[in-house]
Amino acid sequence: METNYLEMEFLSLPANVGVARVAVASFAAQLDFTLSDLEEIKVAVSEAVTNAIVHGYGNKAAGLVRITCNLYADALEIIVSDDGQGMADAARALEPGQGQDAEHLGLGFIFMRSFMNEVEVDSAPGKGTTVRLVRRLPQPLKACAQQN
Amino acid sequence: MPAYGLEVQEEMVGRVLVLRLSGELDVYTADTFRQKADQAMRVSGTRAVVLVLRQLAFLDSTGLGAILGRYRWLQERGGRMALAGASGRVKTVLEVSGVCRLIALFDSERRAVAALGGDTGGEVA
Fold first, then answer.
1. B36 within a domain of the structure (yes/no)
2. What is the ipTM of this complex?
3. Of B28, B68, B93, the CB nearest to A105
4. What is the pLDDT of residues B25-52, one digit of tens each?
5. Which residue from A106, A135, A146, B83 puts its CA 20 to 30 A from B68's CA?
6. Do B24 and A18 touch (CB under 8 A)?
């Protein structure tokens, strides 16, 4: 059962990427994430929102990006979705080296997978893209729990 | 340091162009970095560039791509790039991406400048 919920929607402008990652990290801070955890969440959100703007909407203010955050007792779920052009093979996007040119290296999903516990992509041509990210709180060590 | 944005300060140290980045390097600010770095490299004519990341608070894959674009431009012309002073999450992003295996990362600006053959004005810190 979720303990808190956040939803936001904004125009697909690069200026909004920073707003989005700071807002999600501030929301996530309600759980006992460390500052390092929150910085990693910010990178993952930045990647998902940048993908929506750059790949979904062709780097134009052409549509809306939505973020839904569900805060659970032990985890944060982040869902980033757009109504952009989508992609035919979402699974392939998760593979390394799927960049389109020298400066788009396909590292976005590598960072998402490195910094989050779960990453799922749902997309189809003309149907937009939805990325689901989950970051769980670290489990307390049993030895420490027994001592306490 | 800007709350959200990027500032690029440039200085020639001997024959080495030092670019000190402060703020955030992402899809919103990558063009600023590209334009300032490209102009500084063009005006100086140097092929040795140190990027100082000590005051860089945020870096993602778009920012990393902009750095790698400059690195490759230099490499194709026989030039060199070094990074200096990255810490925290910025350093983690460099490590996870494997960029540290391409571009040397130094703890200090002076060491990075010295590695590229610049005059550090004395002992290397």
1. yes
2. 0.87
3. B68
4. 999 999 999 999 999 999 999 999 999 9
5. A135
6. yes
